[in-house]
Structures are given as C-alpha cells and as structure tokens.
Amino acid sequence: MGKLYKILKYFFITFWAVFVVAPFLWALTTSFKDFNSVNGGATYIPWVDFEPKLEGWRVLIKSPANGGVDIIEPYFNSLFVTCTASLISIILGTLSAYALSRFTFKAGFVKNNDITFFFISQRIMPPIVLSIPFFLFLGAINLLDSLIGLIVVYIVLLMPIAVWIMVDFFNKVPREIDETALIDGCNPYQAFFKVVLPNSIPGLIVAGMFCIIFGWIDFFFAFILTFTEVQLLPVKIVALNSSITPWWSLSASALISVAPLIIVAFVVERYLSKGNLSGAIK
Amino acid sequence: MNLVAENLSYKPDEQFHLDEVSFDFKKGNIYTILGRTLSGKTTLLKTIAGLLTPDTGAMQFEDKDFLKVPVWERNIAMVYQQFINYPHLNVFENVAFPLKQRKIDDQVIADEVTKSLKSVGLEGYENRKIQELSGGQQQRVSLARSLVKNAKILLLDEPLVNLDYKLREQLREEFKNIFSQGLSEDSIVVFSTTDPREAMELNGEVIVLDEGKVLQVGPAKEIFENPKTLKVAEISNDPPMNILKAIIQENKIIFEEIKVDLPSHLSNLKEKNFNLGIRASDIELSDSGFEFEVELAEISGSETLLHLKRGNARIITSIEEVLNFNIHDKLKINFNSNKVYAFNENGVLASSPFGGSYV
Q1: To the nearest whole percent, how much of chain B has pLDDT over 70?
Q2: What CATH fold (topology level) applies to the domain A72-273?
Q3: What's the domain range around B294?
Q4: How is chain A split into domains, by residue range?
Q5: What is the DSSP string of B223-291?
Q6: Does the beta-carbon distance from B78 to A279 stay under 8 Å?
Q7: CA distance to partner chain B, nearest, from residue A210 (Å)
Q8: Of B51, B97, B131, the CB nearest to A184
Q9: Contact assignment for A177 to B84 by CB distance below 8 Å
Q10: Is the ipTM of this complex over 0.90?
Q11: Chain B closest CA to A172's CA: distance in Å?
C-alpha cells in the first residue's frame, strides 16, 4: 500500500513536471534552430538532431538597420512601465484599502462595501469596453504612444487588484492592533507605518506579484495605445511575425519575456517556504 | 484630579451601547466594571481610552476636557481580552514600543522593560517571538507593555477571559499583587469582567453595567450583600441568583406548594406578593426538605451544580461535593431562609439578610 502510493505519487509528479517543463524545453531548442531545422521535422537534441545556430537570439539584439528587430528597448520599456505602475498601484491601493478596512465612509447610500466594489468593478468589464475611452482620454491629454500614458492606464488596471487583495488582508488584521498602537502613543499615521504595514508584508507581496504578472502580460492596451515611439515587449514579440514566421526568434523572445516572472515566482516561493506568508498574524 | 464622566451616551445603531453613564474615578483605586457580554463594558473602556467618541456627555481628567484629547496623547494603557501584541516585534521590542514612542534614552528603556517583564514573570523571554509564546505568556507581555508606561489610567478589558482555568487563577492572583504593590498612588485601574467572583476578589469599587446603563455602584461587598435590583442580583452571582415568585401567608413564604418559615428580616414586607431571591449556595440537600427533579447535573471542580425543577419553578443549586445524579432523579432540598432576598414586583430590593432595602 505504502509502496504503491509512493510509486503513484512520483509517477504523477514526474508526469506533471514533464507537462510543465516540456514547452520550455521545446522553446529553448527551437530558439537555436534556423529555418531548415525548424522545417526539417521534429528534432530535439542539438548537434545530433540539428546544428544549433545563434541567429534567433542575435536578431533580437541587432538594430533594425542591421536587419535585426532590437527587443532590448521594448524589454526595458515593459520593465519600467510594469514596475512603476505596480509600485504606484500598491502604494495607492494599500492606502485606500486601509482606509476602506478601518474607517466608515458614507455618502448617501454609498458605503464602504460599495466603494470596494466600485474598485473591483473596473475589472469586470471586458478590456475592449475600456479601450475607446482610454484612447480618447490619452489622446486628449497628449499621452498616446508614451510611457507615462501607459503607466497611467496600467495603474487604473492594477490598482483594483491591489485594493481587492489588501482590503481582504487588512480585514484579517485585528483592529485592536491599530488601537493598541494609538494607545501606545502613535498617531494614526505612525500606527499605520510602524505597526500595520510591517505586519502586512505577506499581503503586499501577494498583491505586488499579481500586479507585476497582470502588468507584464498585458498585450491589448499596449497594442492599442502605442504606435511607433514606444513599444512594449508583448507587442514587439507579435510584431516579429512577418510573411515567414521566425519560430527561432519567437521562441527566444518568449523565453526572455517569461524570465522576470520566473524570478518573481522563485522569490515568492522562497518567502512562502520560510513560512512568512502564513501565520504572521494569528 | 479624578476621572469624571457625566451622562456618556453612545448609540451607533438601534441599541444604546452606553446610556447616560456617569462615574467619578479617584486616583489610587481599582474600579471593576461588572456586566454580562454586550453590556457595554468594552464600549465604556474604549470611550475612556478615546477610541470611541460618545454621542453626548462629558469627561474630565486633570482639569482637561478629556474627550478633546486624542488617544495617543491620553497616557493610558489598555489590555484586551484577546492577546493583542505586535506580531512583528519580539517580546522586548513589544514592551519597549510605548517607551520608544516617547523618545526616551535607550538605557532607560532597557531598564524599565526588564523591570516590567520581571514583574509579570517573563524575564529571560526578551528575544522570543510573540508567536512562540502560549496564550498566558502573550497576555503577560501585553500586561507588561501596559505597566511599563506607568500610565495614569490602566484599562483591563476582561484580560483573563481567554485563558484556561488554571492560568486564569494564577494570573488573577498576580494581578492582585501587581495592583496592590506595583501601582503608583496616582493611577486609576479600571478592570472589566463578566465574572462576579473576579469582581469580588479584586475588592475595589464595582460598577454594575447592563445594556449600557449603570445599575449600581458600590464596594464589592455592598453589591454582593445588597444588590439593588433583580438584574444586579443576577449579574453579580455565578451561578445567577434563583428568583421565584412567592407570597407571604400566615408567617410562611409560599411558592410552588412549598412553605418556608418567614425569616425575621422579611417580616416587615409591605407587599405580600414578591420575588424571592436565593443564592445557589444557600440551598442544601436535606432528607427533610422538598422534592425536586434533576434536569441537569454538572460537576465543576469540586462542586456539583444541580439544575432542579418543581412545577414551574426552576432553580440552580451548588453543592460543595462531587455528586452523581442522573436526569429525572428525585432529590430533596432545603432553603436557608435566613439568607433569602426579597425583591418587590418591580424587581427592586425590598429586604436583604444584610439589612439593605431600596424600597
């Protein structure tokens, strides 16, 4: 019984691992192929099955003048936009979440829960509904095709996520902790920064992770709101596609674009395994 | 100067949480707020702390309008019934936190914290994380944090209620010691509890609170001996005082076909219909007594609580023995008529064995 369980367990773990890792390996080998190797049937092992070439990767770095596509600038654009928008969303979202969790607001029939729902409702609509207003809005303030414009849009998209996660988190932090801080001589700001915030790091990490993921993978708004001046990575990757699909550079750029998320996943995983995410507050 | 409150009322929803509460707390004394759950004890403490602002009323302390002073400037200390500490700080940092807020010299802080931790029996735990401590130890940390401030007003909101029996007994003893030795002459201690025994043991001034109203104020002994109303009698006794509808006829108290000799302290009652109050501990098993049926028998520690029934009368007695009874068993009990209370039909104390009367 015990042995069978063990065998089954490892079988399924192996199966799942292959399932998860295989696409990455496939992309990795493909990125080192050239036109002939890609079209020459299913081959996987470099030097044996096919002759590895660096062309797929080189194209990404070379400037367009030299026949390349230069993915570096969009890459850093994406990093900059995602990180800035996530950071601002987390800061604003945490502050508003704390207010929604701790103070009572009332304007007519609008109460705390309605305001929280208002934030979340921004994500209920399909993106296409938001695209036209965003386009007109950015056009009106001359921020179309600019990094700042994208950051503004992403804050609108990411802040609801931060508010949602942090309201839920703060609701689980006992109010008495804030009250004790007030009693111990903190004014409300000190209570927030000295006591509530240090105990909210797990929530901040989860919210930050979601913001970064959703910001980083967005294609739709980046596609609609930029033209030539500014390009983000997802748009640039799609733009690689021409009359001949360059599977090698597509694979390479896919790997590059996934890399930051893998780093985020590892950081969060280490934090999780240290037991810091759970049990910070009983 | 005293902490004086006048007509504090707080009504955030349909019900009053505080209803015209007034008090006059003098320095150097312990005040116990006794009341059932949801009677407004926590609301009252939070109002004193400044965490809640009453709708109406006034509060003065040291010649200041206390309601205008923000929480963080009131120099109070509060221990909650939940063990509230700062989870991100260790024991030492927790206790040092309020002193750090005052920007006191580090060496002084270290000395004070050590002293305070010693007074609650936690020396050697300085570097522990809060999560590594047991419930009792966590509550000691929050007590140490409250004591270290040397606050002028110390509020304790049912600090023992979430502890297990043994720890509660032990910590209650320590509280008494700390209150009698460790507190300076100019602090006010306000302790809230649902447990009448706790209120009696602390032996300070007791404020009986129910549905936001102050029912009676007085020394613990006075509340115990002469409860002003039925409600107070119920709240200030555990198990609650038994209340039975009775009449007086021919020098006998009569209820449920039971006749008991009229004790002298009831002989002057004006009304012949009254509410008879008798403590669970003033009822004893006796072969010459009256027959009751057992509805429930609970053994708690070394005593047995019997829930008894006869006709419409339901009473609870506590017997200082471990006894085994089954449901529906019949037994005979006698009433110690010298210890019974009489409340008039409005529930006001008409006569007590200690001579009190509010009629």
Answers
A1: 99
A2: MetI-like fold (1.10.3720)
A3: 235-351
A4: 2-53, 72-273
A5: HHHS-SBHHHHHHTSSSPPEEEEEEEETTEEEETTEEEEPPGGGTT-S-SEEEEEE-GGGEEEEEEEEE
A6: no
A7: 24
A8: B97
A9: yes
A10: no
A11: 13
